[in-house]
Amino acid sequence: MFEYAPAPESRDIVDIKPSYGLFVNGEFVDGGGPGLKTVNPATEEPLAEVATATSDDVDRAVQAARKAFGVWSALPGAERAKYLFRIARIIQERARELAVLESLDNGKPIRESRDVDLPLVAAHFFYYAGWADKLRYAGFGDNPRPLGVAGQVIPWNFPLLMLAWKIAPALACGNTVVLKPAETTPLTALAFAEICQQADLPPGVVNIVTGAGDTGAAVVAHPDVDKVAFTGSTEVGRVIARTVAGTNKKLTLELGGKAANIVFEDAPIDQAVEGIVNGIFFNQGHVCCAGSRLLVQESIQEELLDSLRRRMATLRVGDPLDKNTDIGAINSAEQLAKIRDLSAAGESEGAERWSPACELPQRGFWFPPTLFTGVAQSHRIAREEIFGPVLSVLTFRTPAEAVEKANNTPYGLSAGVWTEKGSRILWMADRLRAGVVWANTFNKFDPASPFGGYKESGYGREGGKIGLEAYLDV
Ligand code: ADP
């Protein structure tokens, strides 16, 4: 092991304003609710004050989107594509600034916001820009029509990437949007509003309303919203499904997960260990498709766990803006409390807890990379989504047992399989009830590849050609 010198990314590239309004009809306007402060979770320092949208503000945003829908949906697809390409290019040009802003507001390591989030955000806009003039070849009929106004509510774990997943396909199909970012991470969505201005996007095509859950609820319930897209907790997803039930609104939900990452005895151990680490410690484990349950074949348990502990001891936790940081800050005090609570339950239910020695900063919200062994299926840490850097280890003897345990969860968003045998990968993929199955890798994303869940992980797919379906009248 060797020491790393500090390698901080400069924050001078971002110019955070003291306060931000709502983005409605192409302009920043005041919100009727009390302002909310967004803080840097690594330091607890306030970054900016952001407006909150009341239901009247949401109504104005929906009206702006409705008015813009006429113009936007009437544009030829090739014209809409030009705007989306322009937005993608501006995102690339401003990528460093946006990455720093994301890391400041969210707490994720700059290495990830710079190398994962931002490239994927741009790629998503490029991908759907390519579809805008080819919708009639997408398999949804000769002249697929947009739905109208999309109300979109997104979480705080990948703020700008979730915005891209929502806005790019909606716009490509000719819809207009009212999007609500999460209350703890509004800043990159507001920077995106500036990008819409920079790209000369017609006013009202994109509207951003900031605020907490009640603002989200007002977007979802608005009678003039035709389509609701939500990413977040299963709990809120249920509330939204109830609100939308019995209306004409179309709904897609991308909710929680408790993915099994399954390692067979013939897997290459070192690669598997990298995949396990990436699966659960990427983005502090704030990932709905995180590989939070490690299922390891009993015969290699000791060898694998030894390697994993050695690897975990090399993870660097700390300043998100340091380019060598592997694990940044937990996004909020509330989330930290939830991770602590579930980890305490793991111990009290009898699992064995281990973390490498690591010094956590004094201020801010932090949690060390944590491993639980001796976990039983019935333990809360095997069943509930922790949404933090906490891995629960279970074992299995046969492939059938691995499938049984992997599927024994109310969720079904993703899974991982590690084995040398191609036939076993296919056999497993056939039986795993999960929207995405990664083989000998984990957490790989591509705009061309659909993403979404089984069971309580939600319904509908985002990404790829099938991702257009959610935004078309098919
Ligand atoms: P997380 O576990 O990611 O914090 P939440 O589901 O609480 O998940 O939050 C995801 C998004 O949903 C956030 O933007 C939040 O403000 C919003 N939200 C929370 N409650 C509601 C609600 N009742 N209706 C609509 N949106 C909501």
Which keywords apply here?
Aldehyde Dehydrogenase, Chain A, domain 1; 2 domains; about 475 residues; globular; 20 strands; binds adenosine-5'-diphosphate; single chain; alpha/beta; Aldehyde Dehydrogenase, Chain A, domain 2; about 40% helix; 6-stranded mixed β-sheet
Question: How does this structure look, described?
Answer:
The protein has 14 helices and 20 strands. It is of the alpha/beta class. It has two domains: 19-254 and 454-473, Aldehyde Dehydrogenase, Chain A, domain 1 (3-Layer(aba) Sandwich), CATH 3.40.605.10; 260-439, Aldehyde Dehydrogenase, Chain A, domain 2 (3-Layer(aba) Sandwich). Helix 3 crosses helix 4 and helix 9 (269-281) packs across helix 10 (301-312). It binds adenosine-5'-diphosphate (ADP). Adenosine-5'-diphosphate binds at residues 153-156, 180, 182-183, 212-213, 216-217, 220, 232-233, 236, 239-240.
